[in-house]
Write a structure and sequence with these properties.
Rossmann fold, three-stranded antiparallel sheet, single chain, six-stranded mixed sheet, 323 residues, elongated, alpha/beta, 2 domains, 11 helices
């Protein structure tokens, strides 16, 4: 019955629920599970992408490409070899020329998840990594079930294989298994990862950068390598609440989680106030840089719940759109 498709999850997705699990980091939190509520939301959502993005295969997206079809979008003149079943005889009679009815040719889109696997993503209780992979899983599920082609591109010092291209719900288990096996540590190398991606890929696509952006590179240079409209870039900035508003005070030895560099700090109330202002200024500068390069920026609190806060926020900001 038609209503079962609208109000019930597909059997294949329900069977995959126990496998859509992000394993917890050792001793830090309980991980993130894509529960039924999150999956219900994803069944009705699609990753936003411009209609101008190229698509080489048939998928689930509206495109500018046209084909002879009974569903009318526009006319074009008949050329020898066209199927006469799609001739619009009424328009032909009115204009004394033969017209073909054209409909839309659905397309796929390439979706790239650039996953930061540096050591700083393991910081926090629970670590930022857990929320990062929960968001990556949600985006990957949306891409796979809507006919897009999915790639996962981990970047960092630890060697991690890429995943993809993959399309279709049959790849859900392999996709989540790949995320669970990622190794974290060392420094982040986003600029090198993007340069490698653009050298291998000519057609462009939708890019998600999932990172805390705690690296020495310049986000502006990264985004200039992914120009619109060929690339549709989303910067998802993942920060732990303790990074935005630290509660510690007094004299501390702070160690860089990626380089191991240790520095003594006297964390007075005034020092924390100045730090918080610098974090606000930094995030605003990142957003301005993204806007200047026609990219989207969103800061995500890693303490937020996926189904109740993060997915509704992605929908509100039109990163995910209703089908």
């Amino acid at each position: 019955m038609w209503y079962r498709r609208i109000f019930r999850l597909s059997k294949q997705v329900i069977q995959a629920v126990p496998k859509l699990f992000i394993r917890p980091s050792k001793g830090n939190g309980e991980g993130h599970r894509l529960n039924l509520e999150a999956l219900r939301q994803l069944e009705r959502l699609q990753i936003r992408g411009s209609r101008a993005l190229r698509g080489d295969r048939t998928g689930g997206r509206i495109s500018h490409r046209r084909k002879p079809a009974s569903e009318f979008i526009e006319h074009r003149m008949y050329v020898p070899g066209d199927d006469i079943r799609f001739v619009d005889w009424q328009a032909t009679a009115r204009h004394e020329q033969v017209f073909i009815r054209q409909g839309e040719m659905p397309k796929d889109v390439l979706v790239y998840l650039l996953v930061d696997t540096s050591g700083s993503m393991l910081w926090g209780k629970p670590p930022k990594r857990d929320t990062q992979l929960a968001v990556a899983t949600a985006l990957g599920v949306s891409a796979l079930q809507n006919g897009d082609r999915l790639y996962v591109v981990p970047y960092g010092e630890n060697p991690n294989p890429e995943f993809g291209p993959a399309s279709g719900k049959g790849h859900l288990t392999g996709f989540t298994r790949h995320l669970n096996q990622l190794s974290y540590g060392g420094e982040s190398h986003l600029e090198a990862a993007v340069q490698s991606l653009t050298h291998k890929v000519a057609r462009g696509g939708v890019v998600f950068i999932l990172s805390d952006l705690l690296e020495r590179g310049d986000l502006g240079r990264v985004l200039s390598s992914l120009p619109a409209p060929k690339w549709w870039v989303n910067v998802l900035h993942l920060l732990h609440p303790a990074e935005v508003a630290p509660e510690i005070r007094g004299s501390w030895v702070l160690e860089d989680s990626e380089t191991g560099l240790a520095i003594n700090y006297d964390l007075s109330n005034e020092a924390i106030r100045r730090y918080q202002q610098r974090v606000v200024d930094w995030c605003e500068q990142l957003e301005m840089t993204a806007v200047a390069h026609h990219a989207f920026y969103l800061m995500i609190d890693t303490d937020a719940l996926l189904d109740k806060e993060i997915l509704p926020l992605l929908r509100e900001r039109q990163v995910l759109l209703p089908l």
